[in-house]
Design brief:
single chain; alpha+beta; 9-stranded mixed beta sheet; 22% strand; binds adenosine-5'-diphosphate; binds magnesium ion; unfolded protein binding; Ribosomal_Su5_D2-typ_SF
Length: 559
Amino acid sequence: MEKKQFQAESKRLLEMMINSIYSKKEVFLRELISNSSDAIDKIYYKALTDDSLTFEQDQYYIKIEADKDNRTLTIRDTGIGMTKEELENNLGTIAESGTLHFKNETEIEDGHDIIGQFGVGFYAAFMVADVVTVITKSLESGQAYKWQSEGTEGYTMEEYSKDDIGTEITLQIKENSEDEHYDDFLDQNHLKNIIKKYSDFIRYPIKMDITEQRPKEDNEEELEEYTEEQIINSMVPIWRKNKNELTKEDYDNFYNEKRYGFDNPLKHMHIQVDGAIRFNSILYIPENIPFDYYSQDYEKGLELYSNGVLIMHKCADLLPDYFSFVKGLVDSEDLSLNISREMLQQDRQVRLIAKNLNKKIKNELKKMLKNERENYEKFFESFGRQLKFGVYSDFGQNKETLQDLLLFYSSKEKKLVSLDEYVSRMPEDQKYIYYATGDSIDRIEKLPQTELVLDKGYEILYFTEEVDEFAIKMMRTYNDKEFRSVSSGDLGIEDEEANEQKESEEKENKELFDKMKEILSNQVKDVKISKRLKSHPVCISADGEVSIEMEKVINQMPD
Ligand code: ADP
Ligand code: MG
C-alpha cells in the first residue's frame, strides 16, 4: 500500500494540532459531527430533488460509539460519503472551504489565530487521536475506501468494503497525559455533555448507546445494567427555538460552530417573522473586521435554508452592500427547494425577506447607538466606512437608512458624535453643519480655516477619511441643514463691521492684490481679503462645490 504525503500546508496544520496549541480539545467532536451533518444535508437534498432516490426520514442519523477497552471513538453517518478523489482532495489537503493561506510566518507561530480564524475541521481529530481511520462509501461511485493516518507522516488509502453509503471515522484515542485526560473522550456522560453543548441543534439525530442502571423488574431492591440507544440532541435548530430559552452563550457557540467569524459576535439578532411571509433568522454583527473584508475577495451573504434544508451558502441578495458585514442565516418555509441563483434575485419572497432584514438591522444598530454607545463605537470603528460608502453609492438613495448611523469626530466633544447630536446643539444663528477635511485630526486642528468657525463657538466635524466628504456631498443636508466646508468661500458667518472694513481695505490695496494675482495667475483664481484669518497671514480657499481635499482626491483618480 502506498503511503502519501500531506500537502505542505496541511502538514503544518497537523503539527499544530498534534502539538495541541488549541486549548479546547473537545471541539474535535463538534467538527466531526458538523461534517457528518453537512454530508447528510447533501444526500438529503439530493433525495428531495431527485425522484429516483427515495429515503426514509429515519435513515438519516449520526451515531457515536465509544469503546473503552480498545480506546476507540467512532463517528458514523449516513451522509453522501466520499469518492476516492474526494478523500484525497478533502482530507489529504486542506479543504478548499478552509482556505488556509498563511500570510506570513508569524501567523504560523501564533497558531491560535489561524485555527480560530479558518477552522480546521477534520484535522481537529488529531488533537485527541494517534490514529484516524476513515471508511467511506460514496453515493456517486458506490465503491468504499479506507483512509488512515497517524498524523504528519502521511496517510494510506485502499479499496475497502462497506455495506451502506456513508462515512465512519474511528479515532484511536490518545493515552492520558499530564495535561489532558483523554479518557474523557471515551466516557459516555462526558461525550453526551459535549454533544449537547456544541451540537444540540444539528437537524439529524445524534445517537449513542447509553448504558445505565435501573431497578430490576422482579426485585426493585436490586439494580441491573441495561443499554439502549438514545438520541442526545434536541434536533431543533437554534433559529426555531424560543428566544427566551436561549442564552448569549448559545448564540456565541452557534456563531463559532458555523464559522461566521473567528471572533465572538458583538451583537446577535434573532428574528422570527410570522406574517405575510414567514421566516426565522439569526444575524450577527462581528466584533472584528474579517481579514479580507475591505478586499475584492470578500463575499457578502447569508445562508439560506428552505424549511430547514440548506439551499445556499452565501445568498448575496439578502443583504445590501452597506450591511455586508452581517453574518447569519435565514430559514423560510415559503421558499422553493429548487430555486436557482438566477431566480433568487427576482424572487418576491427573497426580496421581502431582504427588505425586512434591512429594517431590522438598521433598527438594531440605532438601538445600539442609543443604549450601548461604547459597543456602537467599536462597531463603527470596524464597519463605519462601509456605511459611509453606502451613503455615497446609489447617489444618496440610502441616505434615509444610514444618516442616523454615521459618526464623525467632533471639534467640540473631541470624540465621535452623530449628526443628530451635532444639529441638536447648534446655536440658533448657526446656518450650516461645518466640516474640515485633512489627513489626521492633528492636522485639521492646525488648519487656519477652522479658526473663525471655532471662534464663533460653532462645532466642526473632522473628516479624516476620503469617503467622509463624498458621503455628505451625496446627502447634501441633514435635517434641512446644509453641510459646509470650513474652507468654502462663503461660511455664512456675517459680521457687518468686518464687511465694511473688508471693502475699504480691498479698495485701498487694489494695486497690491492685482499684482499678486498677476504673479500667481496660473495657481489661483482670485486674491481676496479674508475675514476668517486670526493668527495666520494667509489661507487657500475653494470657491465652488468641491473642497480642496476633494480636488486632491479627484486629481488622483485615473481618467
Ligand atoms: P469543511 O467542513 O470546512 O469543508 P473539514 O476539514 O471539516 O472542512 O472537511 C473537509 C471536507 O471533507 C468537507 O468539506 C467534506 O467534503 C469532506 N468530509 C469530511 N467529513 C465528511 C463526512 N463525514 N462525509 C462526507 N464528507 C466529509
Ligand atoms: Mg467541517
